[in-house]
Amino acid sequence: MSGAQETGKQVIPLSEALEKLARLEQENKLAEADDLANRMLAAMPEHPHILHLAGIVAYRNGRTAQAIERMEKAEAIAPDVALYPRNMCEVYRGAGRLDDALRAGKRAVELASNDSRAYFNLALIHYERLELDEAVRMSDKAIELDADYPEAHFERAEALLLAGRMKEGWESYEWRFKLKQAEGMLPKTDKPQWDGKPLPPGKLLIIGDQGFGDCIQFGRLIPWAALLCPQPVLACSGELTPILRQLPSIGKIVTRWEDTGDFEAYIPLSGLPRLAGIGTDNVPPSGYLNPAPALVREWAEKLDRLAPKGKKRIALVWAGRPTHKNDKKRTLKLTQFAPLFAREDICIVTVQKGDQIAQVGGYYGPAPLVNLGPEIGDFLDTMAILQSVDRLVTIDTSVAHVAGASNVPASLVLPYAPDWRWLLNRADSPWYPSIKIFRQQRPYDWSGVIERVAAAL
Amino acid sequence: MGQGRHADALAPAAEALKAGPKDASAQHMMGVVLTETGNAAAGEYHYRRAIKLLGREDELALSNLAWNLRQQGRLDEAAELYGKVIGPQSDNRRGIGGYAQVEFERGNREKAIALLDGALARWPDDRTLRLLRVMADLAMNQPQAALDRLGPPEALVPLEMLSMGQAMAQLGRRQEAVTAFATARHIQRERNGLAYKPAPLEARAAAYKAYFTADRVQPLPRAGAGAFTPVFLLGFPRSGSGLLEQLLAHVAGFAAGDEAAPVAGLADEVARLAGGGAPYPEALDDFLVANGVESPERLRTLYESRRARLGLLRPGVRFVTDRAASNFWHLGLIKLLYPEAPIIHVLRHPYDLMLSNFGQDRKLEGNAQASVPALARYFSLQARMIGHYRGQLTLRYLPVRYEALVRNPQAVLRAVLDFIGVEEAPPGEAELRESVHERAAFRHKAYLAEMPHLFDDVREELTPWISAMGYENGEAEP
C-alpha cells in the first residue's frame, strides 16, 4: 500500500501502521489501539481499512454505535471486501441487530465462499434467531472447509442440543475440549477417556469440567457411572466440593490434579450424558441434592428475624458471572424486576453473589427486600436458604441448578436463544421439574417477561 | 474557644486538664469544648467536676451544664437546673436564652416567651435574644410578627436573614424567601468562610467503601444480643427522622435516644481496642485475632453503658432509638455490634430537603448547608454511602417516606412497628396528629411553579436519586 501515517515527527508506512493497529487490538492494548486508530482516522478519514479496524477497536472499547458507523462507512467505500461484512456480522450481533447481522453474514459468505470463519459467524446468527437447521447447515459448511474447526463443531452441537436432537448433539459436543478456553480443563495424561465399560473400584476419574451449573446438572449421572466403575474419583473446584460431596457413590473428591491417584480412565462430567445415552425423555430425576437440616434451620430462623411476616418470600438472582460468554444475554439489572417489586404481598430475598450485589443499594421499591447475599458462604448456604422461600426467581445461572437439583420451585427467565439445556418452546425442563421457564419473546428484549413471572407467582 | 474553633481547642484543653486536674476552670473549659463538639455526655462529666471543685452553685457553670443536658435531650433536667440559677434578676443573657429554648421545646411556650420578652425589655438591643424571639414567632406560625421584630433587611446578619426567609416562606412570598436564604448563605460563605469542603468527606467515604465490603466484613466477629434493641433511624437532615422518633416515643417500651452518645464515638475506640496501630476502619482486622474477637462485645457494652448514663434504660424499655446524624457513616460498625438491629431510613423528596436545609440555621458536616449545590452533593454522598452498606451487608433495613408519615402517621407507625417486631398497638390518631406539625410534603412544587429554574444547578446530581427513590413517577405522592 502507498501512503504514510504520521505519528508525531516519525513517519511510518501505512501498511505498518495498519499492522500495528491490528496487533494492538489483538493484544488487548485497547487504549493504545484507540489512540492510534483516532490518529490514523484524522489523517485518512476515508480509508476503508482504517475505518474498519477503527470500528473493531471502538467495538472492543464498548462504543458499539461508533463501531457500526465506522464499519458501515468502510463497507460502503469498499463493498467487495469480504472481511468487512464478516466482522460486521459479529458487531451487529453484539448490538442486538440480528437482521443486519444476517444480511452481513450472508454477504460475507457470498463474497468469500471458501471462508470457514464467515460460515461460522453466520451459524452464530442463525442460532441467535433460533433458525437452528440453518445454524447446523452453516456449521457444516464451515466444517467442510475446515474439518478441524472446534468452534464450528461446538456451535453445531449447541444448535442440535437446543433443537432436542440429543444423540447427534452429544457427539459434536465432544469438540468442546478443543476450544481455546478449554485449555487446562483436562489432566495432562496418557490415560484414555472412559468408554463406558466397567473398571475396578477407584479407577475412574470424573472431572467437573464446566461451570458450576453444568457440574450440578450432570452430577446426577455420577451414580450411574459408579454402577460401572465403583467409587470414582471426582476432581472439581473447591467451591463445588461441599455441594457435590452430597452425591452418593463418589470414592473421593480432589481439588488438585496431583491428588487424583492412579486412575485408568477419565471422563469429564459433561461427557457422561453422551455415554449414558441421555435424551429428553430419560433424564435421571432431580432431588439428588438435599441441604443439611441444621443449616436449613439456621437460615430459616435468620430469615424469620429479617423478613417481614405474612409475605411470600421470593428469592432472586439477577446477574451471572460477568466472564461467562453469554452473560450479556442472560444478565438483567435489578431494576428490571420492577413488576415483581410492585407486588406488596411479597418479600424479596436476594441470594445474589458477586459485584452486582451492589445494585441492592439503589433499591427503594414497594416490596421489602432482604439482601442475604453478603452472608452466603457457599452453595450449601444457598441451597439451605432456598428451603425457606416460596420460590426462586432467577436468570440462567448456577443457583437455578441448585434449586432444580433440590426440587425448589423456581421461575427461570431465559433469553430468546437460550443455552441448549433449556430446549425450546416449552415452559418446563426435563432436567428439573420444579423449574418453570419464562422466555423472551423477541431477541434481547426482556419486556413482558418479568411481568409474566410476577403474574404467575 | 473565643473564635468558636472548638475542635481545635480540644487538644490544648486536654493538656490544660492533665496539667491541673483539680483546676475547676480547666474542667469547665473541657466541658464547653466537648459539649460544642458533639460529645455532650463526656462534657457533662467535666461540668460536674468543675462544679464540685468550685464548691458552690456557680451560675455560669450550672447554666452551661443545663445547656449540655438540653443537647442530650434531657429537657426536664435542663429546665430544673435553669430554674435554679436563672432568677428574675439574673444577668446571664445566654442562660436566659437557653432556658427559654428549653421551655419552648418542652411545650411551655408562654413561659419561654415571658422569659424572652422580659430579657428583651432589659436588653432591647441583644440580637441573640431577639433572634430567639423571632424563632418563637416562626414556630407559632406568626411570620408577620417575626418580620416586624427583625426590622429592615439591610441591617440583618445571616442568621437573622435566614429567619426572615422562613417568615417569607410562611407568608407564601417564596421568591423573597429564596432570595433571603441565598443572600444569607452568600454572606456566610464570603465573610465567614462557610464554604462546602467536600474533599475530607469524599476521602472518608472512599476509605469506608474500600474496607466495608461483603467479603471483608463477613469473617469479622459480631457481638451477641444486648440489654435492649437499638433502632437506628437514618435520614438526611430535615427528612423527618426526628418526627418518626417522636412518634415511636409514644409507644410503650420505646425510649428516644436522639443524637446522644452515637456509634461514631465507638469508632474512635476501635483503634485503641485493636491496639495494632492501624486506624479505623482497618483496625477492625485486629478483631479477627485472639482476644480481638471479644472487641465487638466490649464496644456494644460501652454503647449500652453510655445510653444507660443518659437515663434511657428505664424499666420496661426494650427499644432505644438512635438518630445520630453520623450513623450513615457507621452502618458497618453497627452491623458488628448489632447484626440484626432494625434500621429505618426516612426518605423525603430531595428537592424538599434542599429547600428545608437551605433555610435552616443548622450547620452540617463539611458546611454542606452553604448552598443548594453543596447540599445536593452532600445528599448524594450520604445516599451513596447508605447504598454501599445496603449492597455489601445484610441489614434489617426499612425505608419509609416522610410524605407518607405526615399523611398517615398511624399506618406508617404500624408498618414500622411490624418491621421492628412490636405487637403493641400504636397510639391513637389524635395523639399522633399532635406531633405531626409540619405539612410540608412536596412543597418544592409550589416553588418550582414560581421559579422553574430553582433547581437547575442540582438537577443532574439529584435526578438519579429522585428516580431511584420512586419520586419521579409519582409513586410516593398522595
TrEMBL record, chain A:
SUPFAM superfamilies assigned: TPR-like, UDP-Glycosyltransferase/glycogen phosphorylase
Q: Does the keyword Zinc apply?
A: no
- Asked whether the keyword Transferase is assigned, the reply is no
- Source organism, top-level taxon: Bacteria
InterPro entries cross-referenced by the UniProt entry: OGT, TPR-like_helical_dom_sf, TPR_rpt
Entry-linked SMART domains: TPR
User: Could you tell me which residues the TPR repeats occupy?
Assistant: 116-149
Name a biological process GO annotation.
Answer: protein O-linked glycosylation
Alphabetically list the UniProt keywords: TPR repeat
Q: Which PANTHER family match?
A: UDP-N-ACETYLGLUCOSAMINE--PEPTIDE N-ACETYLGLUCOSAMINYLTRANSFERASE 110 KDA SUBUNIT
| Annotated protein name in UniProt | Uncharacterized protein
**Species the sequence originates in:** Acidocella aromatica
From TrEMBL, chain B:
Q: Per the record's keyword annotation, is Nucleotide-binding included, yes or no?
A: no
- Which Pfam families does the entry mention? Sulfotransfer_3, TPR_19
Q: Which domain of life is it from?
A: Bacteria
Zinc found in the keyword field: no
Which SUPFAM superfamilies does UniProt cross-reference here? P-loop containing nucleoside triphosphate hydrolases, TPR-like
User: Cross-referenced InterPro entries, in alphabetical order?
Assistant: P-loop_NTPase, TPR-like_helical_dom_sf, TPST-like
GO MF terms held by the record = protein-tyrosine sulfotransferase activity
**Keywords, comma-separated and alphabetical:** Transferase
Protein name per the record: Tetratricopeptide (TPR) repeat protein
